[in-house]
Specification:
The protein is α+β, with helices and mostly antiparallel strands and 199 residues long. It contains three helices and seven strands, in the order βαββαββββα. This is PRELI domain containing protein 3B.
């Protein structure tokens, strides 16, 4: 078994990062997730948003490993998340469903506000990787561990990309609303002018 862990600080408030994390896929930076479906989403009695999603993702194994083990490039992952706005925590846990009999990857991500700066968010990430019953198990665990480093970096970049996208969307909506208000004001002015001229 290999245990991989990492910590990262985002230069954004918790609410912003959590919103982006929930909209993370699809994105052009981390393209290993090729499909995403929401199975269930609800707010429980404590006000916690609970979600269950299924993802189709690419393994990231070299071609020789796929041939050696006889596996598909695609993997299905079950992801459960809890967003607790009162306590400002988001916990996301995922586990592979495909080939679980010989490889299991259990990942946990925890998003919390930075204790000293409310405009920053801490992401703690951990994965337990176990390969068993196949040749070169330790080597395969090492490959998966290396993939986590690369994918974690891409995942953080993807969250930054989503945050930028959300900001652009907000600016475009503000601009469209402003233009709409200007058109309404012009129409009202023209209507008032026409009424006054008629009198």
């Amino acid at each position: 078994m290999k245990i991989w862990s990492s910590q990262h600080i985002f230069e954004h408030p918790w609410e912003t990062v959590v919103t982006a994390a929930q909209r993370k896929y699809p994105n052009p930076i981390n393209t290993n997730v090729t499909g995403l479906d929401v199975v269930n989403r609800h707010v429980d009695q404590q006000g916690v948003l609970q979600s269950h999603r299924l993802m189709r993702t690419k393994w990231g194994f070299p071609g020789w490993v796929i041939k050696l083990v006889g596996m598909s490039k695609d993997c299905f992952v079950s992801e459960h998340s809890k967003v607790d706005p009162a306590n400002k925590t988001m916990v996301l846990k995922s586990q592979n469903m495909t080939y679980h009999n010989f490889v299991s990857v259990d990942e946990t991500l925890v998003y919390t506000p930075h204790p000293e700066d409310k405009n920053k968010t801490i992401l703690k990430q951990e994965a337990a990787i176990t390969v068993h019953g196949v040749p070169l198990a330790g080597k395969l665990e090492g490959i998966l561990e290396g993939n986590f480093d690369s994918n974690a970096h891409k995942g953080r970049q993807a969250i930054e990309w989503v945050i930028s996208t959300i900001k652009v969307e907000a600016e475009e909506m503000t601009h469209a609303a402003k233009k709409g208000m200007e058109r309404m004001e012009q129409a009202m002015h023209m209507k008032n002018t026409a009424v006054q001229d008629a009198l």
